[in-house]
Design a protein that fits this description.
The protein has 11 helices and 8 strands. It is α/β, with parallel strands linked by helices.
């Protein structure tokens, strides 16, 4: 892979929704050749014939514009469900099947890996979030992860990714949980790895002011991290701001930190979200300006 910096296509949702639109835009308008597909652009539950046509369109458009799709991530739509940790096991079954469909589509589109957050447990009636996942629920989650790895291998995928989130109701949300999960899925048919997000790791309301630091995640998880998401944030919410906004993430320092912790060769994707009612021209403008800051920083690093 010649490029290290790329963009998640989250900013294209409801705007540049076809491969012909987003492939041209990222190459000609942003000057980027590495992308991460969002499953907000393609629903794996669509009929096979439609998905097959969409997969072919991705292969065709990315080849025409010299764009590489590194991976495909769940996106916001499916993330809103509790997925593999829903209290109803039938919903978990549907979520597992959804991921299997996502793997099938990714393989058809020539995308080698799929990932995203795994799910969320239900809130307690007293509105206090649980500090630990139920042992039976965790065992069920691990069993599903092992089954999903086998499905991914059957489709020819090479890696699967988990994205930790800064919420107690989701899993994993701490470094210790992430370390335990990787130990528990070691030896799966396809390797599971992490995508660590700058805004998630630096969320002060959960981790505290002095522990909400990217360094801890990078140092503890090591080679179990396969890629990263970068966003601008203030550490108070998972902002997913672009880099025209003021915040705590400084691109040159981020590049230096990755190099210092042994992650200097890992792909990094800008992941930003915008209100759907915001006009297209202003969205493209701020994404373009963000790429103009980030891409040279990562190229130098």
């Amino acid at each position: 892979m010649s490029e290290r910096f790329g963009v998640n296509l989250s900013f294209c949702v409801k705007r540049w929704v076809t491969p012909a639109l987003w492939a041209r835009l990222v190459r000609e308008e942003l000057g980027v050749g590495l992308v991460q597909l969002s499953f907000d652009l393609v629903d794996p539950t669509w009929p096979d014939a439609l998905l097959d046509r969409q997969a072919h369109a991705i292969r065709e458009a990315t080849a025409a514009h010299d764009v590489t799709v590194h991976s495909a991530f769940i996106g916001l739509a499916h993330y809103t469900y509790n997925q593999l940790l829903h209290p109803d096991s039938a919903v978990r079954d549907v979520a597992e099947a959804w991921l299997g469909r996502a793997y099938r589509f990714a393989a058809l589109a020539g995308i080698p890996s799929v990932g995203g957050p795994l799910g969320a447990i239900a809130s307690r009636p007293d509105a206090h979030e649980a500090d630990a996942i139920d042992a039976a629920d965790y065992a069920d989650l691990l069993a599903r992860m092992h089954r999903l790895a086998a499905v991914a291998k059957a489709h020819g995928l090479t890696e699967l990714y988990v994205e930790p989130t800064p919420m107690r109701r989701e899993w994993p949300s701490t470094i210790a949980q992430a370390e335990q999960m990787m130990a528990d899925v070691r030896g799966s048919a396809v390797s599971w790895r992490y995508c660590v997000d700058w805004g998630h790791a630096t969320f002060e309301p959960l981790y505290g002011r002095y522990r909400a630091r990217m360094e801890g995640w990078l140092e503890a998880l090591g080679d179990d991290i396969g890629m990263l998401h970068i966003q601008q944030t203030d550490g108070q919410y998972d902002r997913h701001w672009d880099f025209t906004e003021a915040g705590m993430v400084e691109p040159t320092a981020a590049v230096a930190l990755l190099a210092h912790t042994g992650h200097g060769d890992k792909p990094v994707f800008l992941e930003v979200f915008y209100p759907f009612e915001r006009d297209d021209a202003s969205v493209l403008d701020v994404v373009r300006r963000s790429v103009a800051v980030l891409k040279p920083a990562f190229a130098r690093g």
